[in-house]
Structure formats: C-alpha cells, structure tokens
TrEMBL record:
InterPro entries: 4Fe4S_Fe-S-bd (IPR017896), DPD_II (IPR028261), FAD/NAD-bd_sf (IPR036188), FAD/NAD-binding_dom (IPR023753), Glut_synth_ssu1 (IPR006005), Glutamate_Synthase (IPR051394), Helical_ferredxn (IPR009051). Keywords: Amino-acid biosynthesis, Glutamate biosynthesis, Oxidoreductase. It comes from Streptomyces thermocarboxydus. Residues 38-69 form the 4Fe-4S ferredoxin-type domain. It holds the Pfam family Fer4_20. Coiled coil: none annotated. This is Glutamate synthase subunit beta.
C-alpha cells in the first residue's frame, strides 16, 4: 500500500474520452490516446490493500488486484505486468470491454467511488506491450498430445494459449475469415481497435498455436472426424443463437438482427467493404434491446450518420445509487450508466422522442408497420410496468425504416452440425451439457464458455478458457495439472 491515505486524498478519475464531435467522425477508440498514464499511478494509490479484498471474489479470474495496484503506484510496470498476466491472458481485452464487476466488489465502493481497477488493468497491459514485457512463452518441450479448439473467441483463445504453453499441440478452428470471434466482428472498433487482437494472435502463433480460419466445423470438416484426429476437442463456439421478437410485422424488410448489422460495419473498418450494405446512413433507426449489444448498435449507427437513433429498454430506468436492500455490496448492481455511445447520442440529440441519452425505458414492442413495398416504416410500442404488463393509454408509434434486434443469445448455433455430429447432450435451455470437469457426454470432448454457460461476460469467458485448459491438461497427462483453474463450470456471479 504505497499511500495509506490515497483513498482519502485522491478522488476517482477515469480515462478521459475524446470530444463527441471528434470521435463520431472516425472508428478509433473513444478514449484520449495516452490519457491514462498521467493519472493512473495516483488512481492506483486509492487501493486500500484490504485484508480481505472482495475485488478478488467479484472477478472470476481471481485477479491479484491489490498487488498490481501497489506496483503501478510505485511505477514498477514489469512486475505489475507479471502479476496481471499470472491470472489473465488478455488484460487489454478485459480492460476495454469488461463491465468491471471487480469495481462493484471494491471495499472502497461501500461508501465512496471504487478504485478505477479496469483503467489500471488496461494501463498495465498497454505498458507491457509498449515496453516489450508481453513476449511469447513457448513450451520447453512438447507432450505429443493434440487438441482441437472450435471457436476463437476469448474462451477458445485462452484455452488454446494455456494448453500450448503446457506443451500440447493446439489448433484453433474458426468459421470466419479472421480470428477473434465476436471480438473481431461483434465488438465495434471504437470500443476496441483490432490491433490489440492481432498482436495477441501473433503472440500465440509464435508460441506454437495453429489457426484454421475460414473453416466451419460441422460443414467444411465433420466434427466426428475431427474428434478422431485429435486427442481432445474443446467446444468454445459461444452462444450465437440470437433471440427473436415474434410480433406482427417481423417479416418486413429492414428489420435485422444486431449480429447481422455489426459484422458488416466491422468489415468496413477492416477494409473488406467500402460501405456496409446495411448502413444506417439517413435512416430512422430503432434498436430493440437495452444491453451492451444495443449500445454497440447505437454507437455504430451514429457513426454511419443515421437520421435518428432510438434504443428501447424493456426495464425501468435504474437509479444512480445502489439499492442496498436488493443489490447489496459486493454484488454487481443495476445502475444508470452512460456508455460512450449513449453520451454521443445524447450530445447529438439523435432521438427527439426519447430521453436525453436516446433510450426509452420501460418500453415494449407491440408490432411493426410497413409500406406498400413491404418495408418497415414504424414501430408500435407501449409502456410497461415493473411486471412487464402494458400500461393502458401509453401506446405510440416511432418512425422506423431500420430496426435492429439486440435481444441477447440463447445458446450455441446448432445449424453448423457440430452438436448433432458429435451427439452432444443439451441442457433444457439449449446450452451444451457438461460435468464438473467440463466434460461432455462424449469422451474426450469438453465444452466451455457461452456455449455451455450461456450468454455471459468476457471476463467469465476467459476464466472458462483457463479452467477448461486445466481440465484438459489433467485428462491428457493422467495426473495433476499445474495450470490454474479459476472457476468451476457451475460457478456463477455473486448475487443477493
């Protein structure tokens, strides 16, 4: 604890964002480049080095947060990077994309703004790359065992890196033309520029991990055949089966799933397309769904110069303070949060009929209306109470010639044939069934990440990847694995 009074004398200060008018004209990250380093050591000073650090418990990775806070406070970046990477393969991903349940569990958050743990993490990760601390770590010897990982999202990449470093020969299969899963084509570049992903993939290649992009297991390669060629198969395909909105008018043209829309915008940034065929430019856009994916659609539509953008959230607007009775510390509370995309929409007044941040809370879609050409032109909604029951007399219509559905995901996509070809058992909710050691009903086949857990956070995805790697390593060696297993398959976030 470098400064015993830091939490008393230093106010919370977060990574500053670039001006709205500047950042909506490009696809670069929203934060001021280099804006963390001048403030981050003093922010790390605010950590109290608690005797029982609940930030550990709130983070499924078990990050050694007080330790690297102290090292950053002393500007010992090399040691901080070592402690950070001891529990997290990809801290530059979580430092940008994770909603930071660790901060909700910060002891300081009981009565003050929490330590900026996420910002400190990101600063360490970026400094590690800048100073050359994130070098490849190939194994000293190979085990002679082979593993196929299906899916290159955070779970698949974390599992592959851990198993490669343990000496196993690992190949990662990805159906898209580039590695990264949803981090590649689902997360907009203004939240995480793709060079962060590229350098991790290159690090893994240098360590020995092999990548097979543009290969759909179940179609290009039979899943059962793949199982016969490898000692172990790890399924980390994510939960990509999107939820539908079965209301009248759903079949009208101009209504798209978020994951049909976002990848095309990312491909424009990658240089694959000059213009997205689903561009929001000049359109009145309504986004159905109040989560992070909806916010990603919002920020993307703003950058594509939509005529208006409105986001519908079926839940009531949360408060600015924690509900101590229903969501006590250290659980992750549902609070009113202003993402970068909401800040942009509010500053630009993109939704004249909505709140200042472009959101309409407690709003449920009743039906869509279209024109004589079968294209959507309006969305009928109604206000709902806390039980999602319609409030009489509140029905109204929003102009909409483009609707994006961001309603979350129900489980793995079964259309590729992997589940059927392997004969995998499923849970009632559609996720892959597994045992306490991440094994499925098929010997030698393991399941991890959202495909088995269900839709979750990136930090849980990485934790799953590390944990399944330990289980696979133990299976392959027939003994005790030295790889860390931060969580079990049945662990869940802290709730009241």
């Amino acid at each position: 604890m470098a400064d015993p009074k830091g939490f008393l004398t230093t106010p919370r200060q977060e990574w500053p964002r670039r001006p709205v008018e500047e950042r909506v004209r490009d696809w670069d990250e929203v934060y001021v480049p280099g804006g963390l380093l001048p403030i981050i050591s003093k922010q790390a000073d605010r950590c109290m080095d608690c005797g029982v650090p609940f930030c550990h418990e709130a983070c499924p990775l078990g990050n050694l947060i007080p330790e690297w806070n102290d090292l950053v406070s002393r500007e010992d970046w090399r040691a901080a990077a070592e402690r950070l990477h001891a529990t997290n393969n990809f801290p530059e991903f979580t430092g940008r994309l994770c909603p930071a349940p660790c901060e909700a569990g910060c002891v300081l958050a009981i009565n003050q703004p929490a330590v900026t743990i996420k910002n400190v993490e990101c600063a360490i990760a970026d400094k590690a790359w800048e100073e050359g601390f994130a070098q490849p770590a190939p194994p000293d010897r190979l085990s002679g065992r082979t593993v196929a990982v299906i899916g290159s999202g955070p779970t698949g990449l974390a599992a592959a890196q851990q198993l490669t470093r343990a000496g196993h020969t690992v190949a990662v299969y990805e159906r898209d033309d580039r590695i990264g899963g949803l981090m590649r084509y689902g997360i907009p570049a203004f939240k995480m520029e793709k060079h962060h992903l590229e350098r991790r993939v290159e690090q893994m290649r240098a360590e020995g991990t092999r990548f097979r992009a543009s290969t759909t297991v179940g179609q290009d390669v039979d899943a059962a055949e793949l199982r016969s060629r490898y000692d172990v198969v790890v399924i980390a395909t994510g939960a990509t089966a999107w939820r539908e909105l079965p209301v009248p008018g759903r079949g009208l043209a101009g209504i798209h799933q978020a994951m049909e829309y976002l990848p095309l915008a990312n491909r424009v940034c990658e240089g694959d397309l000059e213009r997205s065929p689903l561009s929001a430019e000049g359109r009145h856009v309504v986004i159905v769904g109040g989560g992070d994916t909806g916010a990603d659609c919002l920020g993307t539509a703003v950058r594509e110069r939509a005529a208006s953008v409105t986001q519908l959230d079926i839940y009531r607007q949360p408060g600015a303070e924690r509900d101590e009775e229903n969501e006590p510390w250290p659980t992750y509370p549902k609070l009113y949060r202003l993402s970068a995309a909401h800040e942009e929409a509010g500053a630009l007044r993109t939704a004249p009929q909505a709140h200042a941040d472009a959101r309409l809370f407690a709003a449920s879609t009743l039906r869509f209306e279209g024109d004589e050409h079968g294209r959507v032109r309006g969305l009928h909604l109604v206000e709902v109470d806390a039980g999602r029951r319609p409030v009489p007399g509140t029905e109204r219509t929003l102009p909409a010639d483009m609707v994006l559905l961001a309603l979350g995901f129900s489980g793995p996509d079964q259309g590729d044939g992997v589940i059927a070809q392997l004969g995998l058992g499923l849970e009632p909710r559609g996720t892959i069934a597994r045992g306490p050691d991440f094994t499925t009903n098929v010997p030698g086949v393991f399941a991890a990440g959202d495909a088995a857990r269900g839709q979750s956070l990136i930090v849980w995805a990485i934790a799953e990847g590390r944990a399944v790697a330990a289980a696979v390593d133990q299976y392959l060696t027939g003994g005790t694995s030295h790889l860390p297993a931060p969580i079990g398959p049945y662990d869940r976030p802290m709730t009241a």
